[in-house]
Every structure is written in structure tokens, then in C-alpha cells.
Design goal:
- It is built from eight helices and ten strands.
- It is α/β, with parallel strands linked by helices and about 220 residues long.
- The chain has one domain (about 5-215): TIM Barrel, CATH 3.20.20.70.
- The strands form two sheets. It has an eight-stranded parallel barrel with strand order 1-2-3-4-5-6-7-8, surrounded by four helices.
- Helix 3 packs parallel to helix 4.
- The longest helix is centred in the last third of the chain and has 12 residues, at about 205-215.
- The relative contact order is 0.17.
């Protein structure tokens, strides 16, 4: 039976990383500088958590950089295995990312605001290892690139999964109560969560335990 991968985002400490991994996380997300949203930590702490994290768990750096050089600089300073690009960057910037950090896996976030998100598959697919579908609003007055706690239209997400040849993670408003429905409707490669397993901003052992049981139970 297919095992849905689990990525726990907004990790703020080694203790949180340890808790996520103990509950089956295949990857952890480390949030760099953002214009809004939860979970941002400084580069020194990202570097510390990434260096501690045992393989085969992947470490994702969330970068809001717009240029290939800015994104590569972020990754090189933090030492993560994967970069999660949270903006819809110009395709031409990908060549620079590939030149600078060829061994780092590339995950492009697609913010699902309407069905136009499906048009980004063809644009980005040649350059990425995976997609991540989220509920941000990149063109808002204060740009949102994740951590909103909102679910988007899962019918669009399901179409995205069906049309893409690359693995697709689902994010946005996932929590213990809705994860079974999300998996049933979207059938993603993996799921990504932040606010749905936190209380007062802290990763909560009971919530992540309930989530993992509902995910794989």
C-alpha cells in the first residue's frame, strides 16, 4: 500500500524536529525570512537544526527569494537538503539555482487561488523535483506564502496531482479532523502541515499523534 509522506513545517528547534520525526515525519520545514506567516527562524538556528537532522529525513528550507542567486545563497548558508521556493519565480531563475546548488532538491510551491494554478505545471515541471500546493496569496497587499491555516479548493489540487508527472505535496489547513478526506480526494504524494498540529505556536505532541494516526491508520 502506498505510504503518504509527511512533512512537518515551521520547525523552530531541535526538540520540535525530534518530536516530528518521532511521529513519522519524512521531512521537516525550516522557514527563512518571510513577509508574513508563522514559524520564521534565523539562519543560524536553521543551520543548527539541519545539521542535527538524521538521514533519511529531508530538511526543507523555505526561501522567499525571487532570484536564483538569492535562493542559492539562502540554501548554501543553511545547509538543507531541499529548497522550497515559495514564490512563483521567473523560470529563467531556475537555471542559476541548478548551476549553483545542483545536488539540492527543488520544490516549487504553487498557491492555489483558482484553476489558473494548473497552468504552472507545464511551466515549472522541467526544473523541479516536486510541487507543493498551498493556500497563500502572493499578490495580497502583504504577501502570504504559507502558514495561513486555510484550505483551498481540493478539486483543483486533485486535478493538479492527476496532471503532473512530479510528486505533489498538499498543504493548507490540514489537521487531524480533515486529513482522511484530503487524502481521499486529492491522493497527494505527501502532506505538509504547520498550524494544524500546533497550540499557541508550539508543536503539540497530542495533535501530531492524532494527525499521524489519522493519516496512516
Amino acid at each position: 500500500m502506498k505510504r503518504t509522506r509527511l512533512k512537518v513545517c515551521c520547525i523552530a528547534s531541535i526538540a520540535e524536529a525530534e518530536l516530528a520525526i518521532a511521529h513519522g515525519a519524512d521531512a521537516i520545514g525550516l522557514v527563512g525570512e518571510m513577509p508574513s506567516g508563522p514559524g520564521t527562524i534565523d539562519r543560524e538556528r536553521i543551520r543548527e537544526i539541519a545539521a542535527w537532522t538524521p538521514p533519511p529525513v529531508e530538511t526543507f528550507l523555505l526561501s522567499s527569494g525571487l532570484t536564483g542567486d538569492a535562493i542559492a545563497d539562502d540554501v548554501e548558508s543553511c545547509g538543507t537538503t531541499t529548497v522550497q521556493i515559495v514564490q512563483h519565480i521567473a523560470v529563467g531563475e531556475y537555471q542559476r539555482i541548478i548551476e549553483r546548488i545542483p545536488r539540492v532538491r527543488r520544490v516549487q510551491v504553487v498557491h492555489v487561488e483558482d484553476r489558473s494554478a494548473l497552468g504552472l505545471i507545464e511551466i515549472y515541471e522541467p526544473y523541479v523535483h516536486a510541487f507543493l500546493l498551498d493556500s497563500g496569496r502572493p499578490n495580497a497587499a502583504v504577501a502570504e506564502f504559507g502558514g495561513t491555516g486555510r484550505a483551498h479548493d481540493w478539486n483543483i489540487s486533485a486535478s493538479f496531482v492527476q496532471q503532473s508527472s512530479k510528486p505533489v505535496f498538499l498543504a493548507g489547513g490540514l489537521k487531524p479532523a480533515n486529513i482522511k478526506d484530503a487524502i481521499s480526494r486529492v491522493d497527494p504524494f505527501g502532506v505538509d502541515l504547520c498550524s494544524g498540529v500546533r497550540r499557541s505556536g508550539k508543536l503539540n505532541a497530542q495533535l501530531i499523534d492524532n494527525f499521524s494516526k489519522n493519516l496512516w491508520g
